[in-house]
Design a protein that fits this description.
- The structure is a single chain.
- Helices cover 19% and strands 36% of the residues.
- By secondary structure, it is of the alpha/beta class.
- The protein has two domains: 2-95, Elongation Factor Tu (Ef-tu), domain 3 (Beta Barrel), CATH 2.40.30.10; 106-211, 3-Layer(aba) Sandwich (Rossmann fold), CATH 3.40.50.80.
- The strands form three sheets. A seven-stranded antiparallel sheet has the order 4-3-7-1-2-6-5.
- Helix 3 (115-127) links the parallel strand 8 (106-111) and strand 9 (132-138).
- Bound molecules: flavin-adenine dinucleotide and FE2/S2 (inorganic) cluster.
- FE2/S2 (inorganic) cluster binds at residues 213-216, 218-223, 237, 239.
């Protein structure tokens, strides 16, 4: 039964590793069975010596190679950072639902490492010829991954783009660009604020949530959040039902 719930487990070979910003690293893996990944889906990586796999959003998917962009936090990410080209790693995925792409003028909001799935979404929207603008916020210019195609940049210290939090510019972006949908990933406060702006302006929002995960396949229920549906509040798992939810459905605490 449990096996049925796991979409795919495979050994993958590290095919590329690069530092893309002061504290973010890109690792690309070559899988046995190339698969199509939706933006917003994630993979879960077994890190040597640790019981729980670590989840990472897919950042790129080219010719069967899956890339993630990550920041070093603790033991798991330290292990991933230690990997070299040719090393084998154990990954599960793709997991979760991913963003539901709509044929609508799209505003993409990414903050920090949350720009990874949003950047991947931009690639998908561009491929489909859907009009979009990608706005991203970072602490400073050293944190901006060098390869990202970002239309508007905001840094807290003003070292690149406009100065200040991207949240200070949400109203301006919406009024100027008049999006029909907003997709976002980043810290909780960014997701919550984007969802609130969506409600205020009557614009649909899709938010990619993050929760500490154990099984990552919807079994342990360690990652549930409250969601409003049909006038009721119910639990949904971030790993399987999400990580992407409609901003208007999430019960923001
Ligand atoms: C759906 C999803 C997508 C993510 N995408 C990315 C990404 O693209 N790039 C990136 O750098 N990070 C991403 N993260 C966060 C990433 O999973 C954590 O940074 C990583 O698990 C930390 O592991 P660690 O052993 O290095 O640190 P730890 O020492 O274990 O913890 C450091 C911090 O990370 C958090 N954390 C630890 N384990 C998990 C876990 N299993 N799930 C979530 N958070 C955890 C802890 O609360 C703590 O604040 C994502 C998380 C989720 C849930
Ligand atoms: S992590 Fe187990 S249900 Fe989500």
């Amino acid at each position: 039964m449990l096996k049925d719930k796991i979409k795919k487990i495979y050994k993958a070979k590290v095919s590329n590793f690069e530092q893309l910003a002061k504290s973010s690293y890109f690792i690309e893996i070559e899988t046995d069975n190339p698969i199509n990944v939706k933006a917003g889906q994630f993979i879960s990586v077994y890190c040597e010596g640790l019981t729980l796999r670590r989840p990472f959003s897919v950042f790129s998917n080219n010719n069967g190679k899956i890339g993630i962009l990550f920041k070093e936090k603790g033991k798991g990410t330290k292990y991933i950072k230690s990997l070299k080209k040719g090393d084998l790693i154990d990954v599960t995925g793709p997991l979760g639902n991913g963003f539901e792409i709509m044929e609508k003028r799209s505003l993409l909001i990414g903050a920090g490492i949350g720009t990874a799935p949003v950047s991947f979404l931009k690639t998908k929207l561009d491929e489909k010829g859907i009009e979009n603008i990608f706005a991203a916020g970072f602490l400073n210019k050293d944190e901006i991954p060098c390869c990202m195609k970002i239309d508007r940049i905001y840094t807290d210290d003003g070292s690149e783009g406009e100065k200040g939090s991207i949240l200070n510019y949400l109203g301006i972006l919406i009024n100027e660009y008049k999006p029909e949908i907003i997709y976002t990933c980043g810290p909780f406060i960014v997701l919550k604020t984007v969802a609130q702006f969506g409600e205020m302006y009557g614009i649909e929002t899709q938010v990619a949530m993050e929760k500490v995960m154990a099984c990552a396949i919807g079994v342990c229920r360690g990652c549930v959040i409250d969601v409003k549906q049909n006038g009721r509040i119910i639990n949904k798992t971030v790993c399987k039902d999400g990580p992407v939810f409609k901003g208007s459905e999430v019960v923001w605490q």
